[in-house]
Design brief:
It holds the Pfam family Tim44. Its main location: mitochondrion. InterPro entries: mtLSU_mL45, NTF2-like_dom_sf, Tim44-like_dom. The protein has ten helices and four strands, in the order H-H-H-H-H-H-H-H-E-E-E-E-H-H. The chain is of the alpha+beta class and about 325 residues long. A four-stranded antiparallel β-sheet has the order 1-2-3-4. The longest helix has about 30 residues.
């Protein structure tokens, strides 16, 4: 019985070995039958592009294009550009322009004669008040139009306070000759007028106080090119006390004084591009009425020509006295 069991186990072992051998043979045969393409990629997304190993490209002939471009009609050129997939060139060059400010003052305010000196109780002062009331209609219409574009706009005290700060900062930067930051407070039109003839000069300016509180006397809104492109201008009356002194390049004072303060009456025009989201109020100019007294002339320093002065002095001396004068050798 023991032998029969041993014989059965040996038979089972041989059967298992035969089974493994058959599996190996079948597996090897299956592997030998597989065929792999040499150009097959593991990502089939760009199969079509990978199959096109070589692309035929038609190189442009620039010399022929230059010769034939003069003879081609517009339709023929359009067809040729269309074949190449090129947009046709335009005969003109478009350049974008941005209008940042107006070039002048819109309907400039005419200050009443004697403003700041005539009392409102007098007859002349009462006439001035009546004339101002007649002109206020257009001013309030302009302010209403500004509020349509800026809902939070208020004349008093927000705008007046901001206008006075802009006025002080702009003049301080001008005195320091900070031309880079000056354009944040003045427009390009006012910038040219303010920096004119300040080279080789030293400016000392200081704001002391306001004699009268600043007030709005005039406002206008205008459009440029299109009706939607709106610019607003507001004229503010300043009656202040200031000191100004100007020195030439040699350090000699030519205008004003550092000690003596003077009352200054000015009508400053502020401008803003109200349809621009990033527009700001800036000084656009000043209105100088005709009745204001003329400014003091500037003392100009010149180099004296010694030879010319000597000749002029000799001509004024009589002939007899000239013979007695002995000039030193040069």
């Amino acid at each position: 019985m023991y032998r029969s069991i041993q014989t059965a186990c040996i038979g089972l072992n041989k059967f298992h070995r035969l089974n493994d051998t058959v599996k190996n043979i079948l597996t090897i045969g299956f592997m030998d039958q597989m065929r792999w393409r040499s150009n097959k990629h593991y990502k089939p997304e760009f199969k079509k592009l990978r199959s096109q190993k070589v692309l035929k490209v038609t190189l442009p002939d620039f010399e022929d294009d230059a010769k034939d471009s003069d003879d081609f009609s517009p339709e023929k050129l359009r067809t040729r550009y269309k074949e190449k997939g090129i947009q046709p060139t335009r005969p003109w060059v478009e350049r974008s322009t941005f209008i940042n400010n107006t070039g002048s003052i819109i309907e400039p305010y005419v200050p009443p004669e004697g403003d700041g000196k005539i009392s409102p109780i007098s007859t002349a002062g009462a006439k001035q008040k009546i004339e101002l009331l007649k002109k206020k209609k257009d001013t309030w219409q302009a302010i209403r139009q500004i509020r349509q574009n800026e809902e939070e706009f208020e004349l008093y005290p927000e705008f007046i306070t901001k206008a006075q700060d802009i006025y002080i900062k702009a003049h301080s930067l001008l005195a320091n000759k900070d031309k880079k930051n000056l354009l944040q407070y003045v427009t390009e039109k006012a910038y040219v007028e303010m920096v004119h003839n300040i080279d080789n000069k030293t400016l000392h300016w200081s704001f002391i106080k306001s004699v009268e509180p600043p007030r709005v006397v005039h406002a206008r809104v205008t459009d440029i090119i299109t009706k939607d492109n709106l610019f607003a201008q507001i004229t503010v009356r300043f009656h202040t006390q200031q000191t100004l002194s100007v020195f030439d390049r040699f350090g000699r004072i030519i205008f004003g004084s550092d000690v003596v303060a003077k009352d200054v009456l000015e009508y400053v025009v502020y401008e803003k591009h109200i349809v621009n989201q990033y527009g700001i109020w800036r000084i656009h100019g000043k209105i100088i009425p005709d009745w204001m007294p003329p400014k003091e002339p500037v003392k100009i320093t010149n180099l004296i020509n010694l030879e010319h002065e000597t000749e002029t002095a000799l001509e004024a001396i009589p002939d007899e006295a000239k013979s007695k004068i002995i000039l030193p050798d040069a």
